[in-house]
Amino acid sequence: MTEQKYSLDEIRLRLNHLDDQLLKLLSERRKMSLEVAKSKVQTSKPVRDAEREQQLLVKLINNGQTKYDLDPQYITKLFHTIIEDSVLLQQAHLQNLANPELSRKPLARVSFLGAKGSYSHLASLEYFSRKNTELIELNCERFKDVATTVESGHADYGVLPIENTSSGSINEVYDLLQHTTLYIVGEITLPIEHCLVATSEIHIEDITTLYSHPQPHQQCSEFLSRLPGVELKSCASTADAMQKVKQMNRNDVAAIGNASSGKLYGLQSIQGNIANQTENHTRFIVVARKPVEVSTQIPAKTTLIMSTAQQAGSLVESLLVLQRYGINMTKLESRPIMGNPWEEMFYVDLESHLNAEHMQQALSEITKLTKHLKVLGCYPSENVKPTAVQLN
Fold first, then answer.
1. What is the pLDDT of residue 152?
2. In this UniProt entry, which residues are annotated as the site Essential for prephenate dehydratase activity (predicted)?
3. pLDDT tier, 3 (very low <50, low <70, confident <90, very high otherwise)
């Protein structure tokens, strides 16, 4: 039997020391990333340099393997996170320079669906924590109320879910965008980790009633199909569902929500991983009364809505313009135009800065081909694509 070199207490002390060193180094690296952003202000270089990132990651993988016996996947996963943080930090710095009036406002009023602990609330906290902005939280009962509070000036921003990887597009929000005067100024994608929460450690077979928002009901439909006889009841949000279960305080009711949010209401998780898809994410948009200026040095997205003539090939003709100018379309959604039977409004997400020359040329051509076209917003792309690298 191999003699142990250190006692458990000594090992833990050593690990604590190493963890402190890692935190110090990560902090120093962050400061240097900010210096990189400042240098790019002078050179006008874009935030992301795919070739440089790839070379860096390959070097780190090789050094990790040969010098420190570290697994390539481990290194890749770790540095994807570090690179993502660096990119977002640099983007935030450049955006503050492009929008000085916003950087001088460390406090913002933000409206979202549901009470504290709802997924919209969690998305709001995550998005504005990246901006070092403190929040005055305004919870709303309906998506329309979120938009109305911003339009009326009672809130500076509204956070709305727009699509989910499991249940698809959230049509109510798309229909809302068709009539609002607001602009999209940001986005964030949040991992959705659905679980069953209840007031105590009850057995699943004892549940008679399950509360949640209709979206989680759809996203967990396969799990719910295995609960015969359970009555599904809809609430305005997952937070409202958890509040309801807490108030009822019964051992035969539960809610679908987030485990950490459940703790806010004194609930415990009794079953996790209940979504249809393991990788379950919701994309949220941030809306405001005025558009935001986007630095040309950072990756941007532009969202527009348009309606085409009611004749064969009209939509395809418009989309071919985007192809000709090399503009990548990441989303195309159609919704009926209220009051105009059989007519559709198309929502389009594009990976391009609104003020880019090729984008302006494309919009000029598309405008001539459509009956109606409106830009809903140009905003920083917060979803940092992982650096591509070939692992052996």
1. 96
2. 282
3. low
**Structural domain range at position 126:** 101-192+281-288
- Asked whether residue 382 is marked as a ligand-binding residue, the answer is no
**How many Å is the Cα radius of gyration of the chain?**
24
Rounded to whole angstroms, the Cα distance separating 290 from 381 reads 18
Q: Does the annotation place 40 within a ligand binding site?
A: yes
Whole-number pLDDT of residue 313? 77
Biggest alpha carbon distance in the chain? 81
Is pLDDT at 381 greater than 70 in this prediction? yes
In total, how many domains does the chain have?
A: 4
Q: Tell me: is residue 109 an annotated ligand-binding position.
A: no
| Residue 318 assigned to a binding site | no
Nearest to 176 by CA among 213, 218, 211, 143: 143
Task: Decide if 187 is inside a domain.
Answer: yes
- Do residues 180 and 240 both lie within one domain? no
Work out the mean pLDDT of the chain and round it to a whole number.
Answer: 90
Assign 392 a pLDDT band (cuts: 50, 70, 90): low
Write out the two tokens for 99. Answer: 């929008």
Q: What is the CATH number of the domain that holds 122?
A: 3.40.190.10
- CA dist 347 and 175 (Å) reads 10
Q: Is 12 annotated as a binding residue?
A: yes
Q: From CA 86, how far away is CA 79, in angstroms rounded?
A: 10
Residue 87: which of 322, 352, 318, 385 has the closest Cα?
A: 385
Q: What was the pLDDT predicted at 330?
A: 93
Residue 343 has pLDDT above 80, yes or no: no
pLDDT, position 107: 87
Contact 387, 57 (CB under 8 A): yes
Residues 6+ apart with CB under 8 A from 268: 197, 198, 199, 200, 201, 262
364 is in an annotated binding site: no
Question: Is 49 known to sit in a ligand binding site?
Answer: yes
* 218 has pLDDT over 60: yes
Cα(206)–Cα(173) distance, rounded to whole angstroms?
36
Residues 6+ apart with CB under 8 A from 236: 113, 114, 141, 142, 213
Does residue 144 sit in the same domain as residue 86? Answer: no
Looking at residue 283, its pLDDT comes to 94
